[in-house]
């Protein structure tokens, strides 16, 4: 990791730090800064913890509403250093109004997410989890475990940036036909033989659909009831991007109707307060998620697609660089808001 000539020392508090992430994060500042790593997530209840910390580092499921940001600013916070690419959890307008600097990690290993998305797709297609659970109980029947060859089938890639491209390369290796949808074509994907089509055609023709777009107002519930109705009855849907891309209630109704070969979800639109926590001894009150988990052809994991040594190392390194630039009075391409700017999404 690059070593920085720090302008000054500050106290940093990091919310939503996973156990495997803690040592990487605390070592990253060369002992120059005091870093307090917390496994609790930032919200209106926990915001008072940040009082006195100039830099607050946040995770994707932290809640940085206008009210939370106001409390942080009053407590002396000057910078929000988000440890993720997505930032839909941050009220950028409020941050700008309060004079807060906000930065994110604009890129990390695309292979971490693309490979995990394929892990979900293969597990769903070949019923691997069901098979493993059976054999653990010494049940070696093959009933209900039949999958399909992927070679020759059609993969629909929704969002063909770095992660979507990595996913498409793996699909190409399987010998699949490639369809893509995005606001701009990726030349690397067209070189693989990808045909760019409108969303309706992609949903209609694809045997496997994987989502790799950010969560914006225009993409919220991108996969809604009409999109699900357009899909093949035996299609596989994979979402390792953002939970809000899928209308989960509509997905449940689709599955209840006996449609879709399988679904793999690493994200869920109401995951905040659930994912990254141990809820095994509690009653989960989310009826939609509870119903979703009852389907044998649905596999849900807890937002872990990014969680590899390489990706987390890059996330930490970029977070350190963002904080170093803030302390030096600089900005970089990862900065979403600086005190003199409007939010990046609105410029």
UniProtKB/TrEMBL annotation:
Pfam annotation, one family: 2-Hacid_dh
D-isomer specific 2-hydroxyacid dehydrogenase NAD-binding domain: residues covered: 119-305
D-isomer specific 2-hydroxyacid dehydrogenase catalytic domain location: 17-334
Keyword NAD assigned: yes
Keyword NAD: yes
Domain of life: Bacteria
Entries under InterPro entries matching the protein: D-isomer_2_OHA_DH_cat_dom, D-isomer_DH_CS, D-isomer_DH_CS1, D-isomer_DH_NAD-bd, D-LDH-like, NAD(P)-bd_dom_sf
Keyword list, A-Z: NAD, Oxidoreductase
Gene3D superfamilies (alphabetical): NAD(P)-binding Rossmann-like Domain
Family: Belongs to the D-isomer specific 2-hydroxyacid dehydrogenase family.
UniProt-recorded name of the protein: 2-hydroxyacid dehydrogenase
Organism: Streptomyces olivaceiscleroticus
Top-level taxonomy: Bacteria, Bacillati, Actinomycetota, Actinomycetes, Kitasatosporales
């Amino acid at each position: 990791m690059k070593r920085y000539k720090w302008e000054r020392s500050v106290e940093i508090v990091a919310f939503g730090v996973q156990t495997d992430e803690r040592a990487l994060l605390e070592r990253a500042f060369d002992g120059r800064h005091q870093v307090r790593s917390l496994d609790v997530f930032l919200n209106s209840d926990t915001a008072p913890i940040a009082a006195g910390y100039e830099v607050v580092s946040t995770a994707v499921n932290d809640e940085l509403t206008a009210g939370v940001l106001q409390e942080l600013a009053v407590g002396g916070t000057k910078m929000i250093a988000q440890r993720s690419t997505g930032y839909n959890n941050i009220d950028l307008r409020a941050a700008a109004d309060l004079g807060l600097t906000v930065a994110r990690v604009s890129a990390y290993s695309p292979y971490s997410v693309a490979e995990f998305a394929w892990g979900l797709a293969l597990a769903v297609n070949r019923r691997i989890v069901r098979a493993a659970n059976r054999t653990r109980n010494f049940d070696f029947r093959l009933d209900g475990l039949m999958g399909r060859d992927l070679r020759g089938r059609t993969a629909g890639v929704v969002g063909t940036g770095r992660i979507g491209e990595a996913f498409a390369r793996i699909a190409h290796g399987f010998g699949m036909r490639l369809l893509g949808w995005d606001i701009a074509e990726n030349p690397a994907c067209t070189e693989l033989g990808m045909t760019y089509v409108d969303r309706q055609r992609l949903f209609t023709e694809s045997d496997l659909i994987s989502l790799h777009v950010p969560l914006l107002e225009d993409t919220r519930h991108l996969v809604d009831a009409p999109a699900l109705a357009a899909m093949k009855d035996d299609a596989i849907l994979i979402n390792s991007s953002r939970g809000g891309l899928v209308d989960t209630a509509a997905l449940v109704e689709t599955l209840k109707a006996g449609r879709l070969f399988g679904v793999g979800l690493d994200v869920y639109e109401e995951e905040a307060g659930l994912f990254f926590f141990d809820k095994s001894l509690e009653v989960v009150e989310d009826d939609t998620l509870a119903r979703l988990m009852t389907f044998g052809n649905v596999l849900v994991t807890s937002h872990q697609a990014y969680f590899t040594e390489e990706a987390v190392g890059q996330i930490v390194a970029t977070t350190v660089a963002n904080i170093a630039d803030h302390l030096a009075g600089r900005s970089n391409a990862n900065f979403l808001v600086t005190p003199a700017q409007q939010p990046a999404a609105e410029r």
